[in-house]
């Protein structure tokens, strides 16, 4: 057992990304002594939150993710107002592709049921309907039928960097402490609670710990208390290409897009409208959204090397250029491309549904992990649910049941 000094904090949140920062905010709002522990971008942190463009939408094939998004998006204006920092832009969301795919069928089912704030969505059936509504769209000559679902409001793109800054600012206003250090190990503390050791050799004492360290949560076993089994998730590469475009040739009314056809990789992309990045360039972001070109990452060293390289696989770049850019009529490129690499943590990889783990797998130790590549837009609600659970006042709902978020241990080899 480690030392017996009094706990300095009620809760130590490990991981200062979008979920961890939201959870720290909600815990601080409850009057708890909270410390948010994690590196920031300036001190070397890497992750999905260090980008300028992520999709937000409610329409989804899974009601759980739709409800998480609905709750979070509904609070965006209040978060923006309290922090006095803009981070989202509403432009609508269009998902389109082959109506025979499971993804499209489940999405249609959710929208037709009227669940999760999908009122006002428009179905666009057939090539003519899609290209008529969006004249800049140029669908490929494939044999399957076409279907589009357009969500005109409560959808668009957000800046994860600015959202993170807004949430951290609000957390600080409510008393959360911020330590820009990296957690290295979690140990039980004599008399109860935990000691969190940092990479610099210091120690943080807390009665409870919430792990929200993103993909690293699954490959750093020392972040789990002694005796706790690792959680069930697979880490895979996530890649997007930034095409520098001439804004005069870009569609003026372009929503965020998810393209889901039969062919992988040629018909599996998410695409954001042109966005100005910190270097001043305007990029159209085309992210690969299939399975064929993903690669597994099995340990922390591979994750670090992937982020450090910062370069997309050549097959992803080629596919995005040949099949993603070709969706747009008259779009002109204006300079060199950029790359965005990240890591997706897929929970319960052997199952059809992949949801975040929001749970307490050991006494006093909690997790809010497993974003599955979809958590940015829903981070506020994931953080709120986690904060309520840590505070001893869980707040599940009919479409957000307790069982949907149970942490599952990894099967022994």
Would you give an account of this structure?
Keywords: FAD, Flavoprotein, Oxidoreductase. The chain is of the alpha+beta class and 413 residues long. The chain has 2 domains: 9-49 and 160-229 and 353-405, FAD/NAD(P)-binding domain (3-Layer(bba) Sandwich); 90-158 and 234-347, D-Amino Acid Oxidase, Chain A, domain 2 (2-Layer Sandwich). Helix 1 packs parallel to helix 5 and helix 1 crosses helix 8 (379-390). It has 8 helices and 20 strands. The protein has helices at residues 18-29, 63-83, 102-112, 127-133, 160-173, 300-309, 314-324, 379-390, and strands at residues 9-14, 34-37, 54-56, 88-90, 93-97, 122-125, 147-151, 156-158, 177-179, 183-188, 194-198, 203-211, 233-244, 256-260, 268-276, 282-288, 296-297, 338-347, 357-362, 365-369. Strands 5, 6, 7, 13, 14, 15, 16, 17 and 18 form a 9-stranded mixed β-sheet that branches.
């Amino acid at each position: 057992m480690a030392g017996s000094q009094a706990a300095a904090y009620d809760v130590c949140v490990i991981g200062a990304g979008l979920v961890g920062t939201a959870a720290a905010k909600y815990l601080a709002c409850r009057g708890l002594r909270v410390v948010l522990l994690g590196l920031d971008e300036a001190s070397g942190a890497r992750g999905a939150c260090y980008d300028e463009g992520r999709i937000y939408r409610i329409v989804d094939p899974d009601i759980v993710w739709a409800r998480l998004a609905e709750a979070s998006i509904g609070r965006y204006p209040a978060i923006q107002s309290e922090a006095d920092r803009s981070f989202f832009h509403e432009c609508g969301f269009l998902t389109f592709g082959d109506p025979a795919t499971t993804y499209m069928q489940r999405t249609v089912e959710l929208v037709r049921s009227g669940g999760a704030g999908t009122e006002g969505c428009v179905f666009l059936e057939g090539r003519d309907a899609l290209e008529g509504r969006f004249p800049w769209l140029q669908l490929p000559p494939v044999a399957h039928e076409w279907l589009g679902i357009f969500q005109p409001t409560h959808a668009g793109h957000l800046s994860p960097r600015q959202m993170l800054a807004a949430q951290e600012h609000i957390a600080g206003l409510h008393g959360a402490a911020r330590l820009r250090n990296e957690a290295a190990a979690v140990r039980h503390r004599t008399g109860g609670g935990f000691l969190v050791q940092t990479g610099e050799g210091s120690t943080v004492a807390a009665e409870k710990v919430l792990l929200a360290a993103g993909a690293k949560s699954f490959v750093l076993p020392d972040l789990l208390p002694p005796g706790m089994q690792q959680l069930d998730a697979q880490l895979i590469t996530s890649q997007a290409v930034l095409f520098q475009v001439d804004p005069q040739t870009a569609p003026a009314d372009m929503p965020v897009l998810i393209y889901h056809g039969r062919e992988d990789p040629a018909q599996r992309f998410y695409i954001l409208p042109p966005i100005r990045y910190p270097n001043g360039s305007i990029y159209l972001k085309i992210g690969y959204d299939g399975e064929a070109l993903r690669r597994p990452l099995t340990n922390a060293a591979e994750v670090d090397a992937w982020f450090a390289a910062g370069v997309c696989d050549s097959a992803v770049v080629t596919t995005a250029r040949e099949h993603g850019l070709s969706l747009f009529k008259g779009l002109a490129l204006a300079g060199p491309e950029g790359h965005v690499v990240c890591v997706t943590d897929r929970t319960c990889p052997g199952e059809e549904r992949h949801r975040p783990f929001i749970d307490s797998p050991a006494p006093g130790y909690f997790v809010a992990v497993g974003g599955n590549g979809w958590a940015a837009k829903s981070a506020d609600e994931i953080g709120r649910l986690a904060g309520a659970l840590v505070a001893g006042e869980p707040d599940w709902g009919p479409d957000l049941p307790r069982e949907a978020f149970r942490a599952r241990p990894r099967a022994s080899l």
